[in-house]
Amino acid sequence: MTVEDLQELAEQEQARQAKFSHRLMYCSAAGCVSCGSLNIRDMLKKALQEKNLADKVEVIGTGCMGLCGEGPLVKVLPEGTLYQRVDEAAAKRIVDEHLVQGPIVQDNVVDITHPFFAAQFKIVLENCGRIDAERIEEYIAVNGYEALARVVTEMQPGEVIEEVRKSGIRGRGGAGYPTGLKWGIVRKVPSDTKYVVCNADEGDPGAFMDRSVLEGDPHRILEGMAIAGYAIGAQQGYIYVRAEYPLAIERLRLAIKQAERVGLLGNRILESQFNFRIDLRIGAGAFVCGEETALIRSIEGRRGRPRPRPPYPSERGLWGMPTLLNNVETFANIAPIIRNGSSWFNAIGIPKSTGTKVFALAGKIRNTGLIEVPMGIPLRKIVFDMGGGTPEGTEFKAAQTGGPSGGCIPAEHLDVPVDYESLNAVGSIMGSGGMIVMDSTSQMVDVAKYFMDFCKDESCGKCIPCRVGTVHIHGLLEKIAAGKATTDDLGLLEELCVMVKETSLCGLGQSAPNPVLSTLRFFRHEYEELLKQPETFVPSGNGNDPTTH
User: Fold this and answer.
1) Which of 192, 247, 264, 487 has the smallest set of CB atoms within 10 Å of its CB?
2) How many C-beta atoms surround the C-beta of residue 27 within 10 A?
3) CATH code for 350-439?
4) How many CA atoms lie within 13 A of 427 on its CB side?
5) What is the per-residue pLDDT across 458-481, written as a single tens digit (0 to 9) for each?
């Protein structure tokens, strides 16, 4: 395939879509599938046939549309009308009333001017809800693989890395390391063999950002990885995805086959001298395999356990070779940066945290789902404007960011900007993008206990501080929650958290105490209220009895 062929394919697909008067986009991501969207698809097709509209209206499965708590969702294009909680009756009305008679079905319509949608700025999620994730032609029709074509035909590897560096993008897996700097380091390491690895081992409780991108726009990840391969001098990439994501795996496999078939992966990509292949590796769901060295060992077929660093994967990674490792969301940003330019990207967000961030908004909040917002947006705007606040009758208490590695942000810090440095300053982290809202009914000791229970179970056991320390921390939290602990136990808990944080081998143990430390910092009174009160000595007899003095 040449660049001209790519452009022709895009034009052919655009012409094909123009033949339809409408496109009914039903959410085929895991969340909506679990509440019946495939049945809605069948009902829409049946209703269209009954009205003799099957050849005029296309029914398309697409990626996550964001408002996950109100699924199944159906969007009518080109109007852009979004329907929520679509059941069989509503599906029939969408066809009978919206398509045939014209008026919108008001009972199920979503106000897309609501802050949940209006405040979003979509880069990573721009194609989710817009294209059929299972057809490469639809991705190409919306500028897909245009960035790859520009890179392999017009740019030198160093120019690609410089463009990524100037964009200011930082790793979206949570650490926030400058992406362009990492690419440059791997590029400079002398080696005939290098690898590109995509970390899709999303394991934080309540997080589903990467899953939604993989299900709704898999070619975006392939394109980003191929651009990275060209930039650092690699010819092989791997996507490490957990087995609990069967739909994402299915769509990734299909996307790889499609890209190979049309010459966008494999040998001589777009008639250039660049060769690049991508394979999948399925993880068994161990949380520790999200740590880069453990992930690399797992790809190699060994037990997923971290190793000391240095050397870092950029120098000695997969099979001892220089390896570039980024997460799903980082790779999803690469093609837009190349297409639109680094200055476009770094104008979004704030100077030290450029671009956008995808969050999975969950917990005690009215609007649950997937959002993408500019970096630096105040937490208050996410919780109260976009999320709609807490359920009626309760007050906001805290927001947990960063999953088991993060911390709880209390109400007095609601105006904190959501960026790497600001979240660190209040004892939390950006993390991969999970955001769980808690209200006045949440008990913070129980919250800390839940996350520590998760961490102790997911510890690989290699280092003693994490293997033993997390168990003892969890035991102390259970003791406090049961009202059997003393002030000495509380002091021991704090001392143990610091020890585990400072002496563990990898990020799992180093960050496991964060939820405990942040809840102690902002909600210490809840711990103290549960402590066992010391017994007081009550003298017996009268005051003249010498034995009572």
Assistant:
1) 192
2) 31
3) 3.10.20.600
4) 20
5) 999 999 999 999 999 999 999 999
| b (16+ CB within 10 A) / e for 229-267 | bbbbbbbbbbbbbbebbeebbebbebbbebbeebbbbee
Q: Is the pLDDT of residue 360 over 80?
A: yes
Domain ranges within the chain, ordered by starting residue: 21-118, 143-346, 350-439, 444-529
Rounded alpha-carbon distances, angstroms, from residue 222 to 218, 254, 267: 7, 12, 15
Closest by CA to 66, choosing from 439, 378, 374, 358, is 358
How many whole angstroms separate alpha carbon 33 and alpha carbon 211? 14
CATH class assigned to 21-118:
alpha beta
Mean per-residue pLDDT, 347-366: 95
Using alpha carbons, list the distances in angstroms from residue 195 to 176, 224, 239: 21, 14, 11
Please say whether the beta carbons of 510 and 504 come within 8 A: yes
CATH of domain 143-346: 3.40.50.11540
Question: What is the rounded distance in angstroms from the CA atom of residue 274 to the CA atom of residue 266?
Answer: 9
| pLDDT, tens only, 92-113 | 999 999 999 877 778 889 988 8
Residue 100 is classified by DSSP as: I
Beta bridge partners of 110: 82
Q: Which residue in the block uniquely carries the two structure tokens 């997937």?
A: 370
